[in-house]
Write a structure and sequence with these properties.
Length: about 400
């Protein structure tokens, strides 16, 4: 009998995304290890093969890469020069640095989207006060400033009301990305998986909702999205994935406008807006990412149910997640709760809830109640499910 050894995949980053890749790796029969920043990172609690080290240190990265067949990521913060050095040394890095740079560097991303003729908001590379004044003359105040690298979940992003605000921040960081403040109807997201052989699979477009700059909800498929707009969004993400030769899964977040949509940001890894696929899709984003980076045939991205909703559990004031978690499981056995093993602090993503079914309003209400009850925001153990009108009012009031 021939001894066949399945490949070993190494994930740089020990966060919740690496944690959620682990069950998919086990199901595929793939050996799995992580390079975690700390010994108590979320992934280390469920994965045996753990190396603790600094992902910004090239010798550490190289030593880790030598123990696996393919290197991938649960974040985009590894220095690109280190990734290029790993590739030059013969290691399989997926997605490769030539693609990942467009998720790491927002200015390069904006430039590439213009080159591809894809819909960008008005933007500018800001390195001087003259650049600030010119952009303000072009779009007016307020506008948005972002750090080109490193921002996430609302960090590194500010809405600018005056020249002084912009000038003071520029003096601190040296370079900023300016974008128009888009007048949008809602936010959308879409995910694609792409393998080295060029096979692709796209999930349905979802509607997302942000709370204080953090994704709070994703609803699949996006309600009332025209077939024409859904097709244009799908074609856009396929263009990006193919042109950049992305390997793995990629998320594209967008603003829906009266005229169409404008691209906001990319992530070249599993993403919060794709968490609904864990329970609502034939192939989850986590399994698909592993299939893609290992160049396995991709799985079906089809939805299992008419509607799926994901609602994040955002940390509140109480640290005990376990007792409300037990209640939610008993109260609504059909919801799926995913906790990350993180300590609680206000606003921090500590888990999420998925629900699915054929009634959009009820699916969303169930997921929302379960997530907020675990967080301690909703203290009603047996709520009456709200009407669609109340759901809309609740969302509008929490936004204000």
């Amino acid at each position: 009998m021939t001894d066949v050894t399945f490949p070993r995949i190494g994930v740089i980053g020990g966060g919740q995304l690496a944690r959620m890749l682990a069950p998919a790796a086990e199901a595929l029969g793939v050996r799995f290890s992580v390079l975690a920043e700390t010994a108590d990172a979320p992934a280390t609690q469920v994965i045996n093969e753990v190396t603790v080290g600094d992902y910004t240190d090239y010798p550490t990265l190289r030593a880790f890469a030598e123990t696996v067949d393919v290197v991938t990521f649960d974040h985009e913060h590894v220095p690109p020069e280190h990734l290029e050095a790993l590739v030059a040394a013969g290691h399989a890095v997926r997605p490769g640095p030539q693609a990942l740079i467009f998720a790491q560097d927002k200015i390069r991303m904006r430039t590439k989207m213009d080159e591809l003729g894809l819909p960008n908001p008005a933007w500018a590379d800001i390195t001087s006060e003259a650049d600030i004044a010119a952009f303000a003359d072009r779009v007016g105040y307020p506008f948005v400033l972002k750090t080109p690298r490193g921002g996430y979940d609302g960090k590194g992003v500010r809405v600018i009301e005056s020249f002084t605000e912009a000038s003071e921040w520029l003096a601190e960081v040296g370079q900023l990305l300016a974008e128009e403040k888009v007048d949008f109807a809602r936010e959308l997201a879409v995910m694609v998986g792409r393998s080295p052989m060029g096979q692709t699979a796209v999930w349905p477009v979802v509607e997302t909702w942000q709370q204080n700059g953090v994704c709070k909800e994703a609803l699949a498929p996006a309600p009332d999205l025209s077939a024409e707009k859904a097709r244009a969004i799908t074609e856009a993400i396929l263009t990006v994935a193919g042109t950049l030769e992305v390997t793995g899964v990629m998320a594209m977040e967008m603003f829906e406008t009266a005229d169409g949509f404008l691209i906001n940001e990319f992530a070249m890894r599993p993403h919060n807006t794709g968490h609904w696929t864990q329970d609502g899709s034939v192939t989850s984003q986590f399994e698909q990412h592993l299939r893609a980076v290992l160049d396995l045939p991709l799985g079906s991205p089809a939805a299992r149910e008419d509607v799926s909703a994901m609602v994040n559990i955002l940390g509140a004031e109480h640290e005990d997640l376990y007792q409300p978690y037990l209640h939610v499981m008993a109260h609504d056995p059909a919801v799926k709760v995913h906790l990350y093993g993180k300590s609680v602090r206000p606003g921090r993503k500590v888990g999420h809830v998925n629900a699915y079914g054929d009634d959009r309003e009820l699916v969303l209400a169930r997921a929302r109640h379960a997530a907020d009850f675990i967080a301690g925001v909703d203290v009603d153990p047996h709520p009456r499910m709200p009407t669609p009108e109340n759901l809309l009012a609740d969302r509008e009031s929490s936004t204000g």
